Amino acid sequence: MGLIESVIDFLERFLPAIIGSAGSLLWVKGNNFRLLGVFILGAFMGVYLGDLLGEHFGINSEGSMLLTSLFSVSVVDKMFKGLEQTNILIIIERVGRLFK
Questions:
Q1: Least buried of 10, 40, 50, 100, by fewest C-beta within 10 Å?
Q2: Residue span of the structural domain in which 51 resides
Q3: Domains in the chain, number
Protein backbone atom coordinates (compact mmCIF):
# COMPACT_ATOMS: atom_id res chain seq x y z
CA MET A 1 0.00 0.00 0.00
CA GLY A 2 1.43 3.34 -1.05
CA LEU A 3 1.47 6.66 0.69
CA ILE A 4 -1.50 8.04 -1.22
CA GLU A 5 -3.65 5.03 -0.34
CA SER A 6 -2.65 5.37 3.31
CA VAL A 7 -3.62 9.05 3.34
CA ILE A 8 -6.96 8.29 1.67
CA ASP A 9 -7.69 5.51 4.18
CA PHE A 10 -6.82 7.83 7.05
CA LEU A 11 -9.09 10.57 5.74
CA GLU A 12 -11.96 8.15 5.11
CA ARG A 13 -11.70 6.93 8.66
CA PHE A 14 -11.14 10.17 10.57
CA LEU A 15 -12.60 12.94 8.38
CA PRO A 16 -16.04 13.13 10.09
CA ALA A 17 -14.42 13.61 13.50
CA ILE A 18 -11.94 16.15 12.10
CA ILE A 19 -14.73 18.14 10.44
CA GLY A 20 -16.85 18.09 13.60
CA SER A 21 -13.97 19.14 15.80
CA ALA A 22 -12.86 21.90 13.42
CA GLY A 23 -16.41 23.19 13.01
CA SER A 24 -16.96 23.57 16.71
CA LEU A 25 -13.79 25.67 17.10
CA LEU A 26 -15.81 28.64 15.86
CA TRP A 27 -17.34 28.95 19.33
CA VAL A 28 -14.20 28.27 21.39
CA LYS A 29 -12.10 31.19 22.58
CA GLY A 30 -8.44 31.01 23.49
CA ASN A 31 -4.90 31.11 22.18
CA ASN A 32 -3.63 28.90 19.37
CA PHE A 33 -2.13 26.30 21.73
CA ARG A 34 -5.45 25.88 23.52
CA LEU A 35 -7.37 25.67 20.25
CA LEU A 36 -4.99 23.02 18.93
CA GLY A 37 -5.33 20.97 22.11
CA VAL A 38 -9.10 21.24 22.10
CA PHE A 39 -9.19 20.29 18.41
CA ILE A 40 -6.98 17.21 18.83
CA LEU A 41 -8.74 15.94 21.96
CA GLY A 42 -12.16 16.56 20.42
CA ALA A 43 -11.22 14.66 17.27
CA PHE A 44 -9.86 11.69 19.27
CA MET A 45 -12.95 11.58 21.42
CA GLY A 46 -15.08 11.74 18.28
CA VAL A 47 -13.24 8.83 16.68
CA TYR A 48 -13.15 6.46 19.63
CA LEU A 49 -16.31 7.43 21.50
CA GLY A 50 -18.26 8.00 18.29
CA ASP A 51 -17.65 4.42 17.13
CA LEU A 52 -18.77 3.09 20.47
CA LEU A 53 -21.91 5.21 20.56
CA GLY A 54 -22.69 4.38 16.94
CA GLU A 55 -22.59 0.66 17.66
CA HIS A 56 -24.57 1.05 20.86
CA PHE A 57 -27.39 3.12 19.37
CA GLY A 58 -27.35 1.51 15.93
CA ILE A 59 -26.54 4.61 13.88
CA ASN A 60 -23.85 4.92 11.24
CA SER A 61 -20.32 5.45 12.41
CA GLU A 62 -19.64 8.64 10.45
CA GLY A 63 -22.64 10.48 11.84
CA SER A 64 -21.91 9.47 15.39
CA MET A 65 -18.26 10.51 15.05
CA LEU A 66 -19.30 13.91 13.67
CA LEU A 67 -21.80 14.60 16.45
CA THR A 68 -19.57 13.24 19.20
CA SER A 69 -16.62 15.39 18.12
CA LEU A 70 -18.86 18.47 17.94
CA PHE A 71 -20.00 18.05 21.52
CA SER A 72 -16.74 16.69 22.93
CA VAL A 73 -14.94 19.90 21.97
CA SER A 74 -17.31 21.72 24.30
CA VAL A 75 -16.57 19.21 27.07
CA VAL A 76 -12.80 19.54 26.60
CA ASP A 77 -13.09 23.34 26.56
CA LYS A 78 -14.99 23.28 29.86
CA MET A 79 -12.30 20.97 31.27
CA PHE A 80 -9.56 23.41 30.25
CA LYS A 81 -11.49 26.32 31.80
CA GLY A 82 -11.82 24.37 35.04
CA LEU A 83 -8.09 23.64 35.08
CA GLU A 84 -7.33 27.32 34.52
CA GLN A 85 -9.52 28.35 37.44
CA THR A 86 -8.04 25.73 39.73
CA ASN A 87 -4.54 26.15 41.03
CA ILE A 88 -3.29 22.72 40.05
CA LEU A 89 0.10 23.18 41.74
CA ILE A 90 -1.56 23.39 45.17
CA ILE A 91 -3.44 20.16 44.49
CA ILE A 92 -0.27 18.37 43.34
CA GLU A 93 1.59 19.59 46.42
CA ARG A 94 -1.17 18.32 48.75
CA VAL A 95 -1.30 14.94 47.04
CA GLY A 96 2.49 14.73 47.30
CA ARG A 97 2.27 15.31 51.05
CA LEU A 98 -0.07 12.33 51.38
CA PHE A 99 2.61 9.98 50.07
CA LYS A 100 5.50 11.26 52.23
A1: 100
A2: 3-98
A3: 1
